[in-house]
Specification:
The complex is a heterodimer of chains A (315) and B (425).
Chain A lengths: L22 H15 L16 E6 L5 H12 L3 E6 L2 H6 L3 H10 L4 E6 L4 H8 L5 E7 L5 H15 L6 E5 L6 H13 L3 E5 L15 E3 L2 H4 L5 E4 L15 H8 L3 H4 L7 E3 L12 H4 L6 H20 L2
Parallel strand pairs in A: 1-2, 1-3, 3-4, 5-6, 5-8, 6-7, 8-9
Helix pairs in contact in A: 1-6, 1-12, 2-12, 6-7, 6-12
Chain B lengths: L1 E11 L4 E10 L2 E6 L9 E4 L4 E4 L1 E3 L15 H10 L2 E6 L10 H14 L3 E7 L12 H7 L3 E3 L8 H13 L3 E4 L12 E2 L2 H6 L3 E2 L1 H18 L2 E4 L5 H12 L4 E6 L26 H12 L5 E3 L7 H4 L16 H11 L4 H6 L3 H7 L14 E11 L18 E11 L2 E5 L2
Helix pairs in contact in B: 2-3, 4-6, 6-7
Classes of the chains: A alpha/beta (315), B alpha/beta (425).
């Protein structure tokens, strides 16, 4: 089966998932992003790479940060941007997802940035559209959030220079996390060999080891000598119920406190995809501390999204 | 009318027959299979040279979608599909809208099916009123109306006490109860086998224990109640093991497997292909291999199509929201032959799983070419390839994992009650 995000020449025409992409493509995206970083520091923060192109931000699931950074990225590339927040419940009563897509395609869109609560939605849209359209997955269910995985990888490369020889721990709700899945694929492809998932059994998807990550149920074991700690967001509705007894108990066992952070290497960086729950997965003193690079992630996110958009649009 | 089917390879599993010969039909019944009786003068002769002449197939699970879901399929469309697939007797589950929990609905369905003069239809009655799992349906009244056994379809029966009472009540009158084993709490929100593939794709999982725990419960309740239970659509190696042990311990229990489970695994979902969204879910390669072997060795009693026509709109949405099910009536024969070939079974062993075995399970005089049996017959070419496309399928349901596949096994003639109801190229 051909990777549906590559064209016959093996070039990236959609970004749907990091899984299955060769290292060269990932490195090319990261290198391209580096060249875009300086644009943000100019007076005129624009390059004409997507001039005359229409980018539709299609969000079936609410988001502020991701949608905004995609919008900024597209505008810095000189594209015209249309933002659509489509409430899935009202959609289910009327127009089907593919009808919506057909209508927008008829408005001569060039690129769709799609977020959807269902895993595989971006794949389905990409399969449905004619080949000259481009689809960027901005998060589908629990499946993938490839631009987040790439900006995480970018942040790690920025601070640690190389992926090889690093120990990276991903902590918290792996089960529901598309961020974790995308980062696991990215780091495995880029050469990190010591990947660790830390959390209770209830938040570990079955067979996750086969994605290339070791599972730990204990922070003191899992964080030892880590170079990078990625804290995942815990959704409100999952804080109490069959998966976890309470937010307090989660913080006590898996929340990142200064004491637990001290188990990692002294120069370890702390990342979080946002939005953070202070006092649930991360202590404020860590989130605001010198090792946190959470705001840099946001800045890098724009450059990475510019890189992805410019690369897929060129194929 | 006298018909002879001449020069075919006669395969009649129950009589252990697999040899060339002629089949003689007089009116609605078979007169002889092997040599035409002396003086038998047929009004019509069907040339079956190079073809297999077998009993019409008996399918233990085919959703016809009437009443209530006519936009997915109709009685007429699906019964035409059935005979095009060589199926002459089928059992339909009660999960229609309204469900088959009233005698009037059952009688209407049977009458309308009979008027079409295609395959024989045997409905399963609802085990509980409206399939709600709260109170028993009127089993005796439904049995009188023509229900062959009772079932919840795929609707979960959550209340174990009610399940026990239902089995005790059914056992009182020796009614069969057909149950699809799935713990509804463990399977909640799941859409794919809980394992590496679902984890990669980010699809909520249905763990194997959702099935094995339900089977364990059912087996214990069968032992307590003495009910005649048929376990429908098992999907895992562990389930096979539980049923094998129960049978060895002398428990009277039967089970079946859906034809697509002998050929597909969760890895086939690929990039979220909703045609692979079925219930129970496709599991691992090991599960598939164990199911294939268990059907061959008789641990699994019969094979069924689990035919579930789904409209295009319900499949053209993201995997997790798509409606589960696969169309199967016209794939039963080619996929049975494929399983038999891979398992190195004889034609007779292969066809037993879709003729004599399910007929015995139903207690019906069907699935055989014995003299005096009803002349329900399928004549097919075991080598001729058929390409599965939306156009090639007569069923209104075009949803199958095998779209685009080329499979061996093409039905040439189907006879029901001695009349040719289908003839293909």
């Amino acid at each position: 089966m051909r990777n549906p995000q590559l064209n016959a020449n093996g070039e990236l025409t959609h970004l749907l998932t990091i899984e299955g992409l060769p290292r060269e493509i990932l490195t090319h995206i990261l290198d391209t992003a580096t060249s875009f970083i300086s644009i943000a520091e100019r007076d005129v923060k624009k390059v004409p790479l997507l001039r005359g192109k229409s980018v539709f931000n299609l969000f079936f699931e609410s988001s502020t940060r991701t949608r905004t950074t995609f919008e900024i990225a597209a505008k810095r590339l000189s594209a015209d941007v249309v933002n659509l927040n489509i409430n899935t419940s009202s959609q289910s009563k009327g127009e089907s997802l593919l009808d919506t897509i057909d209508n927008l395609a008829a408005m001569n869109a060039d690129m769709f940035v799609v977020r959807h609560s269902q895993s595989g939605a971006a794949h389905m849209i990409a399969r449905h559209l004619a080949p000259h359209f481009h689809v960027i997955n901005a998060g589908d269910g629990r499946h993938a959030h490839p631009t987040q995985g790439l900006l995480d990888a970018y942040t790690i490369r920025h601070f640690k220079k190389d992926f090889r020889g690093l120990s990276v721990a991903i902590v918290g709700d792996i089960l529901h996390s598309r961020v974790a899945r995308s980062l696991i694929h990215a780091l495995n492809t880029l050469g990190t060999t010591d990947l660790r998932a830390i959390g209770p059994q209830t938040l570990m998807p079955s067979g996750v080891e086969q994605l290339g990550i070791r599972v730990y149920h204990d922070m003191s074991e899992g964080l030892r000598n880590c170079d990078v700690i990625v804290m995942l967001r815990l959704q409100n509705e999952r804080m109490r119920g069959p998966l976890l007894p309470s937010a307090q108990e989660f913080f006590k066992t898996f929340g990142l406190t200064p004491e637990k952070l001290a188990l990692a290497k002294p120069d370890a960086i702390v990342m979080h995809p946002g939005p953070m729950n202070r006092g649930v997965e991360i202590d404020s003193s860590v989130a605001d501390g010198p090792q946190a690079v959470i705001l840099q992630q946001v800045t890098f996110g724009i450059a990475v999204r510019m890189a992805v958009m410019s690369i897929v649009a060129s194929h | 009318m006298r018909v002879s089917i001449a020069n075919g390879m006669i395969v009649d599993p129950v009589n252990r027959v697999e040899r060339p010969g002629d089949v003689a039909i007089d009116g609605e019944h078979i007169v002889a299979a092997g040599q035409l009786p002396a003086g038998f003068k047929p009004d019509r002769t069907i040339d079956a040279s190079g073809l297999v002449v077998a009993p019409g197939f008996v399918d233990l699970a085919a959703r016809l979608r009437e009443p209530g879901f006519e936009y997915k399929a109709t009685l007429a469309s699906e019964l035409h599909a059935a005979v095009a697939g060589g199926i002459t007797t089928l059992v339909c589950p009660p999960d229609t809208d309204p469900p088959l929990d009233e005698p009037g609905l059952v009688e209407m369905l049977k009458r309308r099916a009979a008027n079409l003069s295609l395959a024989h239809v045997h409905p399963l009655g609802a085990l509980t009123a409206k399939l709600e799992g709260e109170r028993l349906a009127e089993l005796n009244v439904l049995a009188e109306a023509g229900c062959v056994a009772f079932s919840q379809g795929d609707v979960p029966l959550v209340d174990t006490l009610l399940l026990w009472r239902a089995l005790q009540y059914a056992a009182t009158f020796k009614f069969g109860v057909w149950l699809r084993p799935q713990d509804s709490f463990l399977a909640k929100n799941g859409v794919a086998h809980d394992g590496e593939v679902a984890t990669r794709l980010g699809l909520p999982g249905i763990p194997t224990i959702a099935e094995t725990i339900a089977i364990t419960t059912i087996l214990r309740l069968v032992r307590e109640s003495g009910a005649r239970v048929h376990i429908c659509r098992i999907s895992s190696a562990e389930s096979v093991q539980l049923i094998r042990e129960a049978k060895q311990a002398g428990l009277s229990i039967t089970c079946d497997v859906a034809i697509h489970h002998l050929h597909c695994t969760d890895a086939d979902i690929g990039f979220f292909d909703s045609h692979f969204h079925v219930v129970p879910p496709f599991r691992t390669q090991r599960d598939r291999e164990v199911l294939c072997a268990a059907l061959a060795d008789g641990t699994i009693d019969a094979l069924c199509s689990d035919h579930t026509p789904v409209d295009e709109d319900a499949k053209q949405i993201p995997f997790g929201e798509s409606e589960p099910g696969a169309t199967g009536l016209e794939l039963l024969l080619p996929l049975t032959l494929k399983w038999a070939k891979e398992s190195k079974l004889s034609m007779s062993q292969a066809l037993a799983a879709i003729t004599s075995a399910p007929a015995r399970l139903l207690g019906l005089d069907a699935g055989t070419l014995s003299p005096a049996a009803r002349a329900d017959i399928c004549v097919f070419d075991p080598e001729a390839m058929v390409r599965i496309t939306p156009q090639s399928l007569r069923s209104q349901g075009k949803n199958t994992p095998f779209l685009g596949c080329e499979l061996a096994g093409t039905v040439r003639y189907t006879l029901v009650n001695g009349a040719v109801v289908y003839s293909g190229r």
